[in-house]
Write a structure and sequence with these properties.
The chain is elongated. Helices cover 12% and strands 36% of the residues. The protein is mainly beta. Strand 4 and strand 5 form a beta hairpin. It has a 5-stranded mixed beta barrel with strand order 2-3-4-5-6.
Length: 128
Amino acid sequence: MTSLSTPVTWVDVRDALPSSGTPVAAAITGRYPADDGTESSAAPGEEFWLVRPMYFTSLHFGADGTEHRDCFVDSDGVVRLAYGLDSAETVTHWAELPTLPGEMTARAVLGESVQAALQRAWSAQSRG
C-alpha cells in the first residue's frame, strides 16, 4: 500500500514568505467573534489558531477593488496578511501543500485531468 503520510515543514512568516501563486496550508490566528472596537463589547472574543488551505500572492484585488500585497487568500476570497501587519486575522506560519498521492508531482489537478489522476493514485495504492 502506498504511504499517504508526508512530512510538513512549517515556516514562520517573519522568516520567509512563499512564492507568489503557491498553494499553502496557512496557520491563522485571531479572535472570534472579532472585536469590533466598540466599548460596548463585554468581551473581546476568544482567541483562536487554526489551519486553512490558502494560496499566497504578491498582488490581489479584493471584491471591493482593494489592492492587497503579499497576502494569503482562501477559497472564499478572504484575504489575510502576515503576522504583525494590520489585520484582524493574520497568518503566523505556512507550509507548502504536499503533492497528490500516487505517482503525482502536482499539488492540484483541474478539469478533465482529474479522473486520470485519481485512477493513477488508486492504481499506485493497490500496487503498493
